[in-house]
Fold:
Amino acid sequence: MVSTLQPGIFARFQKMKKTAIYALTPQGAVLGRQMAEPLDADLFLPASIADAYDGSIAFDRLLAVVAKGFFLYPRQIFVTAAGIAVRAIAPHLKRKDRDPAVIVLDQKGEYVVSLLSGHLGGANELARQVARLTGGQAVITTATDTAGVPAIDLLAKERNLSIANLKAVKFINMALLEGKPIQVFDPEDRLGLKHPERAMFAMAWIGDQDQWITGHPGVWVTWKSHKADTEINRLILHPKCLVAGVGCNRGTTAREILHLIKNTFQDQGLSLGSLQCLTTIEAKRDEQGLLDAAEELDVVLMFFGKSDLESVKTPHPSSVVKKYMGVSSVCEATALLKSGKGKLLVPKTKSQNATLAVALEN
Structure:
């Protein structure tokens, strides 16, 4: 059965797959179908040939279908000429930390080229994966990969750290390519580089921020907010280690919850780039304001049952919360529980209808 592109069809498909494969010729379609199942991908084919390939999605114009699906699929595979792929994606490119992974391969699968978002999007690894499926050769052109040195943006992604100043990546990677030592200030060892043998590159471990040498390339890891850096070669990385526990009255708006979170983080000098998740009590699973706030912040919303929270000691238990929710604390208790009973950085703070606490994950 072939699906035809109709209004709203992407809303259905994007919930199912993370990879889109586009092919234009019968031979490319055969290869695309062979890749679709192991990659759990949607296969897009011209309407003129799609009927011959069950499960494919027919389209009339490649540029139109790519325009609709470019940011719905985190991974995009073109079984086309490289020029065709470039023209199809060019109008939609934004930033290297937002663009999807894009690879292109010939219809025989002999050469699999990582075209866009090689590190942050994962196109380099996708190219290697596809090459293994086709028996072809992955073509990787990013400088750090060809030189055999680690890329700092890829290391940050692997360790779940967000990049605050993306432009600084190129200065760090250039220093790595030139063999220059990289300063690393990471007091909690979130990058896992405290022991030099793990670094795989020349580095100078900075134990105290006063030891930092201005003007030398380096990486600064912190969950604290950081104003625009005047040092273009200092890369600021934020580990995902802050847990925001939230309690609220029924019907509290996402706007109020977001205002409380953002203002509190700003006032306390905490980085939203280090926000890992929101937490609350199970009884709030259907609270739309919380659901919308988590979506706006692009984080997971986690729920805990009363039995989980009863054992957590908090500095500010509430008899009112106990009366209505059956536990003495929601925001502090859920934040501490998810953080592994780490450090409570922000005790319970309130808006008119919501409460917030922030804990640092162990």
User: Anything to note?
Assistant: Confidence is low (pLDDT under 50) at residues 1-15. The chain is about 30% helix and 25% strand.
